[in-house]
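Entry for the shared binder. Reason: the reviewer on the internal report wants the predicted structure included alongside the sequence.
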Amino acid sequence: VFILIIRNTGKSRRQPCPAVLDHFDQQYSEELGDLWASARAVLLDPPSWQYGVMLNRFSSVTDITQILQSQGFSSLLPQTDAHQSERPPKFPPSSLQCYVHPHPLRFPSQAHRPGQLKQYYLLNAASLLPVLALQVRDGDKVLDLCSAPGGKAVAIMQSATPALLCCNEPDPHRRDWLAKTLESFLPSSLCSRVMVSAQDGRFVGQSEAGFYDKVLVDAPCSNDRSWLHSSDKLRGQQRLEDRARLPELQTQLLRSAISAVRPGGVVVYSTCTLSSLENCAVVEAVLKDFPDAEVENLWEEIALPLSKYFALGILVVPQPGRTWGPMFLSRIRKKR
């Protein structure tokens, strides 16, 4: 098998949207302080971005693994067959396999082939953190509340075999995208376990109260990476207007998720923005309405074991050489 590994160069550098960049400069220089200058440099330099390669356990990947290792990629996570002494402390082993490279090398994407499973999924490796924090176990009932385009749903199925994974997406075009992603990575034998729904996520907590063991809310957000490179001034201005309305929607979705999880179950809330208004402020606002829910500390479980790769607490801030993120995550457990 021959696969061309692509090293990013600056030849096709995208230009940032001035309005969005000005807005980010004002907000993030205040919120992040000295961290913003280095994060800004990374976000403005797409050729420096690193990519993870998540392998598909339902497909033969031996050849891909060999190619990755020969090119200097290494495994991000400890595997289920690793020796206990080799595992980072308090970091649970996983069947999920993701390979990362210290430099911005990129595997080519695989085209959708009806009837054939893809071998790997390209992603910002920080997007796996919410799935790891969810701690899905075999037999769990799991809701991916805002599921499209489907990368995190695929990662959940790489991690465990839940009794049910409900992938919810109300937008019809994004739902088609989600369905195609699932078809590309999951065998038909899992159809009884994985379903796609089209509910308004704000009301799932009413219709399915207390039904799920785990709920992921990868909320619609002002995606800093893509919004910064909005194609024109008008679109950039529209996105800034949308940005102001997002916290209300995010709050409604998180409320719904906490209502949908059983006592003792967990909700993971995540975004791919640095904005505190869409991150900590949303979690804090929602918890005021749920005295039976509390935020769990992810420092020893996730932050310390993966500090080699990510600059993070519960917020992954892109930095030179560790260009993953932005990614915010918070795990909330409903008390028994």
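Summary line for the report: The chain has eleven helices and 14 strands.
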